[in-house]
Amino acid sequence: MKVLLVSDNHGEGQILDRIVQIFGDQVDLMMHCGDSNLDPSTDVMTPFLTVEGNTDWGFTYPEIQRATVDHEKVVVTHGDHYSVNSTLTPLSLLAEAEAADVVGYGHTHQLAVTTADNHLLINPGSISQPRGEYAYIGGTFAIVEVTPAAWKVQYYNRDMQPIEELAFDWQR
Fold first, then answer.
1. What Å distances lie between residue 162 and 67, 140, 143, 157, CA to CA?
2. d(Cα 35, Cα 32) in Å, to the nearest integer?
3. Spatial contact of 121 and 105, defined as CB atoms under 8 Å apart
4. Which helix (H) or strand (E) segment is 157 a member of?
5. CATH number of the domain where residue 79 is located
6. b vs e for 78-117, b when ≥16 Cβ sit within 10 Å of the residue's Cβ?
């Protein structure tokens, strides 16, 4: 299973449209980790399973989205209700409670990926307003390939190019 994760575009629809055009037929699932600031009924949002971010006022996105493809479960939340600015423990507990193989989150605008208790926890970073160590890239999203044996993570920049130093493999 391949899932594309994107987050925190804050109203910039063109970048999402470009991601869908280029990667839509290369992945099994596309999930948005919140703060899209775009109405769920807009054409650019319909390809994504999307969660509500802390700036998605007035939209009807759920707090959590769940999907299962090829027996692999992915759960996405924005992260603002899970203290992601200071700890990943609540996300690990969510992963455990949901029996999720992958938990995606946003909110911090900083890409991050780690494993915890046989769950992959991943922030694709902000595609439009990046912060932190990798802000110089100018925005990122990620594709996660999940197999029974491994997780493979590849981050991409706004030019839709893989970032060589941001490719990760973990055995499960």
1. 25, 10, 10, 7
2. 9
3. yes
4. strand 150-157
5. 3.60.21.10
6. bbbebebeeebebbbebbeebebbbbbbbbbbbbbbeeee
Counted residue by residue, the chain has a size of: 172
Q: Which residues of the chain fall below pLDDT 50?
A: none
Q: Which residues span the domain enclosing 37?
A: 2-171
Tokens found for residue 17: 């449209």
**Two tokens, residue 25:** 């037929």
Cα gap 88→95, rounded to integer Å: 11
Task: Reduce the DSSP state of residue 85 to 3 states and report it.
Answer: coil
Strand partners, 29: 3
Q: Enter the pTM of the model.
A: 0.97
Number of domains in the chain: 1
Q: What does R_g of the chain's alpha carbons equal in angstroms?
A: 14
Long-range (24+ apart) CB contacts under 8 A made by 108-113 are 108/79, 108/84, 108/132, 109/8, 110/134, 110/135, 111/140, 111/142, 111/155, 111/166, 113/142, 113/153, 113/168
Q: ∠ at Cα 130 (126, 133), nearest 5°?
A: 120
**Which tens digit of pLDDT belongs to each residue from 96-135?**
999 999 999 999 999 999 999 999 999 999 999 999 999 9
